[in-house]
């Protein structure tokens, strides 16, 4: 069966056969040829034992490339080309690696103000003979929305192998800013027309005589095709980590989280719009000034758990925590022997405007998430949380057995009637819920010691096998599942659990934005390495991002000392480094007022209030339209104990932007070790004492078997390679 194609693809094979041959070379086992085909400049890649794939380096639009000059250098080829409409500079480079990697970057300068209504995609499969329409391939994953500009595919007819393709979308920000276009949904396509489709500007002309980068693509070539889901997800992580050193990255920023946390703590406690009352007990609203929606158990626990972490770390107390304790047990429903989502005394407020806004209707993930937070609080000594958890866990098991470890989206808690079976037609239910349930069972085993809980965990995890990227439903739950799987690997030694954890993390990293949005409102906040809450979510979300951050911290802790996939030692610490500076920009006082939406879906936004917006959008869209997310406020409390450490004798604080493990506090010294990869750098700051006092500290990094002193990068800042052992003494 022939694949339908557009005219811009139908003639490519013949155009290249009849094109002007510009240059040829080899890249390891691959033959590379450059062609001027009239309206396009092409690079073709010949696989060692199969056909070809063409990469369109430049498109002449309604014009021909009448002049091309090639400059050959040691590690790159520069093509200068021009048409009647524009000048192009194409740079094809070959970063120094031991795997076949090429990069092509195209600059475009219009000769007069120009509107561009169409641009074809830049990848086309070719054949030795035959037709492009007759080829076939599998697109394993591609960009959705404003996520990374990635594309991973295998060509199966003729059987070429695979390509991991990545567009450095940051490079196109200047063009998008000038033309008021977006980089959303630009990398993907349908076989055989795939790759990057440059965002066209049919309405606002770009200026003349200004050079814009219109493509910056990295291509990893593979001779093999992917055989199974575990190989696919692991290889995706490997390729992403291999490219990561080569893509442009902004400087990671530092935020004064201790000061932010004090503001959040004070305002959250005192602002009436954050609270509601029921049965003489106070409860947090989900959103500021949202009095229409009943109190939810998830909201209370989303703040209570990180607040507990912060208060334990700071060795202080606060009445906010006491308020959150007062009415938590009222969420337990004696009739069905479990906690419920909505406060039972307020369910008459439910307006049924959404499927879950009805008494006794449960969103499958929503039962397990509060149970996990109750278990974490119980581990920290919270007796109220422990009782609620232990009294509810058997109901969770009952539900799991009823659905045979494959949960729907919505069900009725009393009868277990399915109200919504699938997330979308043919897509099944919430596929990461078996992981969340298994995590609940592991926590039950730790707290109660009964082997039946581990048996339940193993049975549930069988539902994740064979899903690959499709395990991912909700980012935070999938990320926590990865940690639970790693813990089960430690418990059992069964490597399938570790490999399943890689599939979970591949789903998370498939949903990140590895580029910086430098257009529109996007110039006002950092977006590099942000993560989206759902596969199709149009915005990043405060609470889910924070929980992914916390879950990835946990993953590095539980896998410390294990021989995990090396790519994770690159990606996870780097994500955490950027998250520590970026997450603060959900708080509206750090954003310009004009980028915050005027019409709010839930409650209202108070722009001076240190409660995060739920949603950050593409650079051309205003943010915060969902509401100001009270339950996201816990991020401030949760970051402090993960990134800061106290130097009590000096009344000082240390901050490190990588996850750190094995802290040891001795007399007049502190030692710890960073996770990560030695090729990347972490930063440490010493806070609360003068720079003169910092200069008297002895900061050392371990090299081989000895500690060597290092100097400050800038006053109180010190740089270390990933995986370094650090000693601070005074």
Structure report:
The protein is of the alpha+beta class and 730 residues long. Among the domains are: 220 residues; 79 residues. The chain is 30% helix and 27% strand. The protein is built from 17 helices and 37 strands. A hairpin with a 7-residue loop joins strand 7 and strand 8. The longest helix has 20 residues. It is globular. The N and C termini lie far apart (74 Å). The model has no long low-confidence stretch (mean pLDDT 95).
How much of the sequence lies in strands comes to 25-35%
Task: Report the uncertain regions.
Answer: none
Largest pleated sheet? 8 strands, antiparallel
The averaged pLDDT comes out at 95
Radius of gyration: 27 Å
Number of helices: 17
Q: In what order do the strands lie side by side in the largest sheet?
A: 5-6-7-8-17-13-12-11
Short description:
By secondary structure, the chain is α+β, with helices and mostly antiparallel strands. Helix content is 30%, strand content 27%. Helix 6 (297-314) runs parallel beside helix 8 (364-379).
